[in-house]
Amino acid sequence: MMKMVAVEEVCGRQVACIIYDSIMNFVDAVAGRLKLPSIVLRTTTAAYMHSHNVMFQLLAEGFIPLPESQLEAAIPEVYPLRFKDLQLPATIEIPQIVLDFMHSYMDIRSSSAVIWNTIDQLDRWPLQQLEQHWPVSFFSIGPFHRMAPAVATSLLEEENSCLSWLDKQAPNSVIYASLGSLAIIDEN
């Protein structure tokens, strides 16, 4: 069972709010239990998230699935977006498990704001559309890739700096989780 700690116990300081990635939707429940406000961090642009809303609207109106001959057609009221530009194929029936995941990913739950990986000048129209959908504060603070220092690693050269640390750990005590790298791991 998970122990909920008092806010004052976290780093010995008062916590003002919890900011969490939208994929980690369980954090909103934790924030609620701690009686803390939460803010959703969207690592995508507002245009990408708006395309999710468009997809659900098209599904509700019966536009999807549609014949392949209509993929080049502009989506009504969302020009210049075409059916082929949607993040999911518009010509097939989308499995319910995928739709459930998208609904969960899009839900801001009880969060009081959304942080976007964009700038207002780039995503003005999608931000306006999303503000009508979610009546919370929006903070456009991207692009995130410009804020982080360059990483001195290469995908072409093997990274061995962790091996000395790994050699000191007990057998079978470390789990490797790849969060987006291009690493290929064999059974050994």
UniProtKB/TrEMBL annotation:
Annotated SUPFAM superfamilies: UDP-Glycosyltransferase/glycogen phosphorylase
Signal peptide: none
GO molecular function term, any single one: quercetin 7-O-glucosyltransferase activity
PANTHER family found in the cross-reference section: GLUCOSYL/GLUCURONOSYL TRANSFERASES, UDP-GLYCOSYLTRANSFERASE 76F1-RELATED
Record protein name field: UDP-glycosyltransferase 76E1
Family label: Belongs to the UDP-glycosyltransferase family.
Top-rank taxon: Eukaryota
Organism: Sesamum angolense
